[in-house]
Known about the structure:
Strand order of the largest sheet: 2-3-4-1-5-6-8
Structural class: alpha/beta
Number of helices: 29
CATH topology of the domain at 2-160: Rossmann fold
CATH class of the domain at 2-160: Alpha Beta
Largest sheet: 7 strands, mixed
Shape: elongated
Mean pLDDT: 83
Helix content: 55-70%
Distance between the termini: 73 Å
Number of strands: 9
Strand content: 5-15%
Radius of gyration: 29 Å
CATH superfamily of the domain at 2-160: P-loop containing nucleotide triphosphate hydrolases
Amino acid sequence: MIIALAGNQNCGKTTLFNALTGSNQHVGNFPGVTVEQKSGEIRGVKNYSVVDLPGIYSIRPYSSEEIVSRDFILDGKPDGIINIVDATNIERNLYLTLQLLELHIPMVLALNMMDEVRSNGGTIDVKMMSEKLGIPVVPISAVKGEGVSELVNRIVSVTKDKVYPTIMDFCPVGAVHRCIHAVAHLIEDHAQRAGVSARFCATKLIEGDDSFAHRLELDQNELELLDHSVLEMEHDTGFDRNEALADMRYTFINGVVDASVVKCHESKGQHRSVMIDKVLTGKYTAFPVFIGVMFLTFWLTFNVIGSTLADWLSLGIDWLTKLVDSGLTAYGINPVVHSLIIDGIFSGVGSVLSFLPLIVTLFFFLSILEDTGYMARVAFIMDRLLRKIGLSGRSFVPMIIGFGCSVPAIMSTRTLASDSDRKMTILLTPYMSCSAKIPIYAVFSAAFFPKYQAFVMIGLYLFGIALAIIVALVMKTTAFRGSPVPFVMELPNYRLPSPKTVFLLLWQKAKDFLQRAFTIIFIATIIIWFLQTFDTKLNVVTDSADSLLAIIGHYISAVLKPIGFADWRVATALISGFIAKEAVVSTLSVLLNTSTAALGSALSGMFTPLSAISFLVFTLLYTPCVAAVATIKKELNSGIGTVGVVIMQCVIAWLAAFAVYQIGGLLT
């Protein structure tokens, strides 16, 4: 049995899903799209699994999440639906409920947050509401686990006995009633063949959802009869088609609420949230507070907690590398195999693996901000600015994460409702300079601009942001033209984060990072090691200048000459930077036979101050690391698209560096 868990955003759906499944969860993607799918076995019940659908307000396909939810319910044919609603905001939540009832699928309504309703002086007559809606209604508190076992028993009962909703007609006799029944009668045979409720199809067609006309294969005569019915309804009611159906649903909802709900007064949580929002979303205070929160998050991640954990992990990896190195030396293993294991696998994979604590720490803080309700405010205050470049406020969060690491930033674009916004944000995120590039900036700015290091660093970050805005404006008028998707954002009450939810998120992200990026990094590391170790006759080289990598570097250096650096060692360092950006510095140290501390003086023989600036601009903008590219491929679900992204990044990086070098040459 497959159970769909559906509900509005911020109604406690994830908490209920965790309570239903515990650790029996699986995370993947819905077929054909990159919207995340969470499913799991219901604890204590054999052969029952639940799928956590994206939070939606209506089964009207504006966003990719709403399309996923609708298509899963229609095409996935779940055996039952658990519709979770926020009992403290019941009128709006029941709007989705009425649409789900029209699907004519066994269903149970879960009234969540009943503990808050009671504590604030409200009550709900569950039996009366059940009679009015024609489905079982179960009061629960997902956070406290109250009523969850009864909810499981009810959904098992209605699915096994195939108990369907008894009420599907929500409108009194009148123009809307006549229109719905006329259209339902018109398409009844088509809906039966498609395996979808005729009532549901009728309301979708009346709302103007053309996908249902295609799904039902209506002919021209039937479409004309449909339009005639809709025009007659609009004439009689004075509303357009969508207003008429919304009025019908809310009239029914008001009747249900009046008969079964005693509304609670404003809760302490609501009052507290309103007072906090005067500061966090205030006209003059929102941005300073946001900057402070983000600064604290990144400082704790990359300077205190995350960096400390990463250092400890690096020490552990170094210790293990030395132990294995000593063991292989004592064993007398073949030198080539020894080099493959130590210089290839341990060196390459180990350097990337050290990012894991940073990613986990960053997601820890971001999940707390999300659970408390603050991230919804961030999207709200940034929406107006980002809309000018064709994005919504939600895109700002991945971009902020991109200053730490592109991998979790690209992964976090899954939260974006619009497929266009998601793809555009993925393309723009690499322009946000990740923390892995900081060693490059530090070495070059100290070597060539010792008095202006801070200005150089800030200038690079601002240059990346400015170029991202230019690219966004170009894409807005070319590849991503069209009307923006309506931006709907709920500002939930501030709440304490759930430790269990935070822990499960951290575990999923860590596992996801290791599973997806680790294999790609492993393969790429072996390829780089092979190119560094052998010449064209597959003999082991004693000097890296004779290696295959050096030959490739010579060819690439010809392309790099117009932007100021033609040395093959620079090209080789940029190639190794594809594995991890920190490898640019370490590769230059190896090729110049010097320590990282003395690298600055060695670089003065290869670069001038102008070519150093050009190099910094190129490293700021050229292709992200292999882990980020692998994540882009996974999120775009397109190998060709990913290659296009890499080529675009390199071309833009070359053009920007060329402009800097040539204009700088003219000025100096």
